[in-house]
Amino acid sequence: MDLTNPFFKLIATVMQEEASKYDYELVALSGGQDAAKQNNQMADFVAQGYAAIFLNPVDSKSAGEGVKRAHDAGVPVFTFDVQVTDEEASKLIESHIGSDNYQGGRLAGKSLMDITGDNGRIAILSLPRITSCILRVEGFKDYLREQRSSLEIVAELSGEGNRNDGYTVTTDILQSHSDIVGIFAINDPSALGAYSAVVKAGKTDQITIVGFDASPAGKQAVYERKLYDSPQQFPRKMAVGTVQAFIKYLEGEEIPRDNFIPCEHYHYVDSVKDESRIKEQW
């Protein structure tokens, strides 16, 4: 979990509030996009006798090491947002809750087809080491294929999920593919970085950007027509659901192994009177 990202900062805050209702203290640490660091953090939690670990993997496969260590020590692991893909470790996760990222990617595909008139060349800003982002891209591509879209994907590069890399990668794409008409970015920070590159290139009338998250910044960008759509995630539901899964686990109740929350379109018409946008909230 990257606590510099408002999405995860909110999740941590809501988890802390929800856990306190049951007299638990929740300690949130940032993995810093470093898989080894995150595995060490999990090892520390185990050594210090924590009751459970709520995990958002920095790397979906590498996180398996920490999960196995926790399981061997009898510490249950619950994942949120991003799933663990290590085959052995994934079977040890008590429960996962996250957005239906594949379905959200399909929403993004529909939006880009609609706004471009399903005509032209497009680019994707991905983040291929994270399962949630992989699923968004898969959903996006599958929707285009199933609809027999005429849109042609001419570039797919990692924007690393942040503004700076989103800007740099989009700048590079525009140098090679100056005629693109649309960009799908796997989150709002990379989408807003892409928008800055499009502005610098003087192509805002030519290129439409679809992000993902409907973060406070993303909602405002939709309202300002910088982004056409930002399929909405619901981090509060994710945070509360993770804590509730842990409590049910303690009480011996059956909990679903996977709980996926559907995403929703977030267009300009949704933004106009949206109180959460006005209050800069998720």
UniProtKB/TrEMBL annotation:
Domain annotation Periplasmic binding protein: ranges: 3-254
Methyltransferase listed as a keyword: no
Sample GO molecular function, one term: carbohydrate binding
UniProt xrefs under Pfam families: Peripla_BP_4
Subcellular location as annotated: Cell envelope
An example Gene Ontology CC term for this record: cell envelope
Keywords, comma-separated and alphabetical: Signal
Keyword Iron-sulfur attributed: no
PANTHER family in the record: D-ALLOSE-BINDING PERIPLASMIC PROTEIN-RELATED (PTHR46847:SF1)
Annotated family: Belongs to the bacterial solute-binding protein 2 family.
Protein name, per record: Periplasmic binding protein domain-containing protein
Organism, as annotated: marine metagenome
